[in-house]
Design brief:
Layout (H helix, E strand, L loop, with lengths): L1 H17 L26 E4 L2 E2 L8 E3 L2 E5 H7 L7 E4 L4 E5 L4 E5 L4 E6 L3 E6 L5 E3 L4 E5 H7 L3 E5 L4 E5 L1 H6 L6 H10 L6 E14 L2 E14 L2 E9 L9 E9 L4 E5 L1 H6 L6 E6 H6 L5 H14 L2 H11 L9 H12 L5 E3 L2 E8 L2 E10 L2 E13 L2 E10 L2 E12 L2 E15 L13 E4 H4 L3
Parallel strand pairs: 1-13, 19-27
Antiparallel strand pairs: 1-2, 3-4, 4-11, 5-6, 6-7, 7-8, 8-9, 10-11, 12-13, 14-15, 14-26, 15-16, 16-17, 17-18, 18-19, 20-21, 21-22, 22-23, 23-24, 24-25, 25-26
C-alpha cells in the first residue's frame, strides 16, 4: 500500500497539470531507496531533512505516545543557536528565538506562546508538557509542537521507530529544477477557458469486485463563456439501478453571480415532481448564510487559478505528503517529480520534447509537441506493476481533441479490484452564447425551499 499511495499521488499531480498528520501508526509512501542507517539509540530515531540526528548522552524519549527531544539539541538542529535559547530555572520558562517566530513554553505547563514579527502573538494549549529528566539533568520538549511551530512537516514511521521532520519550505527553496514546459502544457490545456467554446465529452467507467461488475456511462455537451455555462448531461445507470436506466440533466447559470438552474426530469419524477420544472440553486445566498462573501470567494478562486504554476502544484503535493516512511520523505518525492516533469528530464528533437523514465516499476513516458513557444499537443502514458497493482494509463490532447484511458487491477487484502475508465472529448470555439436561465414558461423551484431550508 505504501508504494501504491505515492504512485497515485504523483500520477494525480501530473494528470492535474495536463488537463499535518499526527504521529499515528499508519503506513504510506514508497520507492526502492535505502535510507541512511539510523544511529544506535535507546530511544526513537529522528530523521530531519533526510539526515539522522544524534543527541549525545540525552536520547529522545517517548512519554504517553509522544516523542520528546532534549531542549538545546533539537533547537540547535533546527538552526537556533544557544545564544537564542533561554531557560529560566526559577519560572521554568523556555524561550527559543528563531528568525520567523519566538517559541515560549513552560515546564509542566500545556500552554505554548508563539510570537511572530509585528508583535503578533498566538497562545494555544498542547496535550503534552515539557519536563525535566532529573537523572540526566536535561529539559525535554515535545518535538511535534516545536517542529510545527517552525512550519515543518512532522510524521512517524512506526516500523522504523523514527520521527520524520522535513523543512518543506527549505527543501523547495533549495530546488534548482524548472518547470517551464509543464507551465506551457497547463496554458495549452486551459486555452479555451477565457473564450466562448463548445465541447463534448463521454465518460465510461466500469468496476469489478467480488464477482460483480458495475458501470457508469456519462455523456456531456458544453457551451461556456467565462463563468456562464450551459451543460447537457446524460447518465446511463442501467448497470447500477435498472429502474432508473437513464437520467438526463441540463445545467444553466452564471457562476459569477452564483445562480444555477438544474433540470433533471427523471430524478424529479421520482420525487413526485413532473413537468418542465427547473431547480434554482443560489450559491451566493447559501454561502452568504454561513457568513462568507461569494463574490470574494469567486474572485479569489479565479486569481488563484490564473496565477497557479507547476511549482505551486508541487508545493501543495509536498506539503500534503504524509511523512510515515523513512524511505520516502519530501526530498524523495521532489526528486521523483523532477525526474518526471522537470525541464532537465526532457530531450528535445525538432519540435518535440520527450521524457522516458521508470519510477519503481512504473514506466512513464511524456511527449510534448510545440510550435514556436507554444504547446500544440501532448501524450502521457504510465504502465507497470507494483505491490499487487497493475496500471495502464494514457492521456493525450492534440489540437481540440482529448482522450484518457485507464485500466487498474489491484489486489488489496485478498480482494481483487478492476477499474476501467475511458474519456473522449472535443473542444472548439463557438459563435453561440450559453443560455443562463430556464426556458420561458418553465416552473422554477428554489432548491433550498425544496429541501426545507
Amino acid at each position: 500500500m505504501k508504494k501504491i499511495t505515492s504512485i497515485l499521488l504523483s500520477v494525480t499531480l501530473i494528470a492535474s497539470l495536463f488537463c499535518i498528520p499526527a504521529m499515528a501508526q499508519e503506513e504510506t509512501g514508497y520507492v526502492d531507496m535505502v535510507p541512511i542507517s539510523a544511529p544506535v539509540s535507546t530511544g526513537p530515531a529522528v530523521l530531519f531533512n533526510g539526515d539522522y540526528l544524534t543527541f549525545g548522552d540525552a536520547h529522545p524519549q517517548i512519554v504517553n505516545d509522544r516523542t520528546y527531544l532534549p531542549l538545546r539539541a533539537i533547537f540547535n538542529a533546527f538552526g537556533i543557536s544557544d545564544d537564542n535559547i533561554t531557560w529560566n530555572e526559577a519560572t521554568g520558562l523556555i524561550t527559543a528565538n528563531a528568525e520567523t517566530v519566538i517559541i515560549s513554553m513552560i515546564v509542566g505547563d500545556t500552554t505554548v506562546q508563539l510570537t511572530y514579527p509585528g508583535a503578533n502573538i498566538f497562545t494555544f494549549e498542547m496535550d503534552v508538557v515539557p519536563f525535566i529528566d532529573v537523572e540526566l539533568g536535561r529539559t525535554y520538549v515535545p518535538v511535534r509542537f516545536v517542529a510545527l511551530a517552525l512550519g515543518y512537516n512532522v510524521g512517524w514511521d512506526a516500523v522504523a521507530g523514527t520521527v520524520i521532520i522535513d523543512d518543506v519550505a527549505g527543501i523547495i527553496a533549495a530546488n534548482g529544477e524548472t518547470y517551464e514546459l509543464m507551465d506551457k502544457i497547463s496554458d495549452y490545456s486551459s486555452s479555451f477557458e477565457n473564450t466562448r467554446f463548445a465541447g463534448t465529452a463521454a465518460f465510461d467507467l466500469e468496476m469489478s469486485m467480488l464477482g460483480e461488475t458495475v458501470g457508469l456511462g456519462v455523456s456531456m455537451t458544453m457551451l461556456q463563456e467565462y463563468l456562464a455555462v450551459e451543460y447537457g448531461v446524460t447518465v446511463d445507470l442501467s448497470q447500477i439501478d435498472p429502474t432508473l436506466s437513464v437520467m438526463n440533466m441540463e445545467i444553466r447559470g452564471d457562476l459569477e453571480t452564483g445562480v444555477l438552474y438544474i433540470s433533471a426530469p427523471e430524478l424529479l419524477s421520482e420525487l413526485g415532481i413532473d413537468g418542465d420544472v427547473w431547480l434554482k440553486l443560489d450559491l451566493a445566498t447559501l454561502i452568504g448564510d454561513i457568513g462568507m462573501d461569494y463574490s470574494e470567494l469567486i474572485a479569489l478562486s479565479i486569481a488563484s487559478a490564473e496565477s497557479m504554476t507547476t511549482e505551486d502544484f508541487i508545493a501543495i503535493m509536498l506539503y500534503s505528503l504524509p511523512l510515515e516512511d523513512v524511505s520516502y520523505t519530501t526530498s524523495d518525492m521532489l526528486a521523483e517529480l523532477n525526474a518526471i516533469i522537470g525541464d532537465s528530464a526532457f530531450t528535445k528533437t525538432g519540435n518535440t520534447y520527450t521524457n522516458k523514465t521508470i519510477i519503481d516499476g512504473i514506466a512513464v513516458e511524456i511527449s510534448v509537441t510545440t510550435s514556436g513557444d507554444k504547446v500544440t499537443g501532448y501524450t502521457f502514458t504510465a504502465k507497470g506493476e507494483v505491490d499487487g497493482m497493475s496500471i495502464d494509463m494514457s492521456m493525450s490532447m492534440v489540437n481540440n481533441k482529448m482522450s484518457v484511458n485507464m485500466d487498474i487491477n489491484a489486489e488489496i487484502d485478498g480482494l481483487t479490484m478492476e477499474m476501467t475508465l475511458t474519456v473522449d472529448g472535443t473542444y472548439s470555439n463557438s459563435n453561440s452564447a450559453p443560455k443562463t436561465e430556464p426556458p420561458a414558461g418553465a416552473t422554477v423551484v428554489d432548491f433550498a425551499t425544496l429541501l426545507g431550508f
